[in-house]
Structure to design on (201 residues):
């Protein structure tokens, strides 16, 4: 199980159907809902405000969730938070994606089915309408998200929802092999293709 800490009598909550990597850190008022994936090195530091991951969402490797006292940082159902992103006192609405190494600040709202591009900086208090494609530093809406992009995003989120089950069933700590086997098998999984490849097809 993850590194889980109570503070001031408040203890994290993890639904039994969720998967939280053993190197993730959950402190205080952190709530992990059903079928959620929390990746290696992720930090949910609920020592000030409440942090919520709703059903089927994911918080990938080295992400950070934090917020101000009495506030909430929320990833709604099927939210998808890419590697290294920082969420601070914001709301990521249902089925939205926050790209790798993006920062979403206090009071910001990412609308339903929106996509925040990698390395975007969403300023405090910015509110984006549903299905916004959001990019840049500072972030801005450049157009509506297409049906094809929403379908692609959904496939990626389903990959992470399936990963929850794979991790619960098969992930275990082991000693590494000492040499490479040329007949080494690949991880047996089919997943969504990168968006740039989907667009070229």
């Amino acid at each position: 199980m993850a590194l889980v800490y109570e503070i001031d009598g408040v203890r994290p909550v993890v639904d039994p159907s969720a998967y939280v990597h053993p190197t993730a850190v959950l402190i205080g008022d952190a709530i992990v809902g059903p079928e959620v994936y929390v990746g290696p090195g992720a930090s949910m530091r609920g020592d000030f405000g409440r942090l919520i991951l709703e059903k089927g969402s994911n918080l990938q490797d080295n992400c950070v969730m934090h917020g101000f006292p009495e506030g909430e940082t929320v990833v709604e159902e099927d939210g998808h938070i890419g590697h290294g992103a920082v969420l601070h006192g914001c709301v990521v609405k249902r089925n939205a994606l926050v790209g790798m190494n993006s920062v979403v600040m206090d009071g910001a709202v990412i609308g339903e089915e929106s996509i925040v591009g990698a390395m975007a900086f969403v300023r405090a208090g910015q509110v984006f309408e549903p299905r916004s494609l959001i990019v840049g530093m500072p972030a801005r809406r450049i157009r509506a998200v297409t049906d094809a992009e929403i379908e692609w995003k959904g496939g990626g989120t389903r990959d992470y929802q399936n990963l929850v089950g794979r991790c619960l069933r098969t992930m275990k700590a082991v000693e590494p092999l000492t040499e490479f086997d040329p007949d080494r098998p690949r991880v047996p999984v089919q997943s969504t293709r990168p968006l740039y490849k989907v667009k070229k097809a």
